[in-house]
Amino acid sequence: MILSRTKLLLVISLLCGIAIVALGCKGETKEGKSAPSSTALTIAMIKENYKTVDAQDVVLKASIAEFKDVTSYTYLNLKDSTGRIWAAIPKTSVEIGDEIELANIIVMKDFHSRVLDKTFATILFAVPSKGSSAHRPPSHVEMPARIITGMPSGMMSGPMPQNTRVIKATGDHAYTIEEIYARKKALAKSPVKVRAKVVKFLPNIMGKNWIHIQDGTGSAEKMNNDLTVTTIETVDVGDEIIVQGTLSVDKDLGSGHVFAALIEDVSVEKLKNE
User: Fold this and answer.
1) Distances in whole angstroms, Cα of residue 175 to Cα of each of 29, 184, 195, 253
2) Distance, CA of 62 to CA of 41 (rounded, Å)
3) Dihedrals φ, ψ of 8, to 5°?
4) Does residue 163 lie in a domain region?
5) Number of domains present in the structure of the chain
6) Closest CA relative to residue 270, chosen from 211, 228, 206
7) Do 150 and 262 share a domain, yes or no?
8) What predicted TM-score, i.e. pTM, was given to this entire model?
9) Which domain holds residue 51?
């Protein structure tokens, strides 16, 4: 399907114009202009604009031609009038022929599933929207609104739990999230330690669990309030934790997904609620 220049600008502006906090759209349209947003996508539009598809409020409507359940995800072969594409959603009860609406769409190229022993040329990571006939999974395994702050904040982030600011970690290499963003160039490839609360948990993506944390410092407007970490450990949204790991800066995952700051392979200490 060939998009007119105007429609193409509408799609790109919508997908890149939303503020990135956890997979982010780093670039702009060539003209650098914004345009009114749309709320629906087709499979052809996604394939043609895969480098910029990453938005909270865009919905893909399609039917399920095939599905495969694994431990944490349900893989869907989707079709609409413009084509077919594979998608992965948190494990959900579906049937062939179900109509489904997907939101919070993240596009990955050449993604290899070790469980299925299959490489997908293009695959979507998303969650069912309210209009889907599929039964939605529990909220604690949902994909975030936008994966990266920087999987943009946010392989994207949620609101800080009530109980305001978290006490700063103590000891060597301890920083607040705001301090890490302010000093990220100097701290690149260095050990860091952060005490914060879990606002998003995404299991088993690229062989790791992805956690979004906030400690009450920074702001969403400045995009320095939410930090993404990777680990093999599991946590729940609302947990207060201390993470320690090595800081990566401007981490490029490909397909336009760049983390401004990312702490990789962290150890996690869960704190008891006081």
Assistant:
1) 36, 11, 8, 25
2) 10
3) -65, -45
4) yes
5) 2
6) 211
7) yes
8) 0.49
9) 39-137
Residue 107 in domain: yes
Residues 124 and 167 placed together within one structural domain of the fold: no
The answer to whether 206 and 264 are in contact (CB under 8 A) is no
Consecutive sets of 10 residues in the chain, 274 residues long: mean pLDDT of each?
40 34 35 41 84 62 93 89 92 91 80 84 82 47 34 41 75 96 95 93 82 90 88 90 94 71 93 72
Angle at 53 between CA 128 and CA 266, to 5 degrees: 75
Which among 106, 122, 137 is the end of a domain? 137
Q: Are 60 and 42 in contact (CB under 8 A)?
A: yes
Q: Where do runs of H (alpha helix) occur along 157-264?
A: 177-182, 184-187
Nearest CA among 123, 125, 146 for reference residue 14? 146
* pLDDT for the residue numbered 28: 36
Of 137, 170, 187, the last residue of a domain is 137
263 & 182 share domain: yes
26 domain residue, yes or no: no
CB-based contacts of 8, cutoff 8 Å, min separation 6 = 49
Show the beta-strand stretches assigned E in the chain: 40-41, 54-55, 59-69, 73-80, 83-90, 99-113, 118-128, 191-205, 208-214, 227-231, 240-254, 257-271
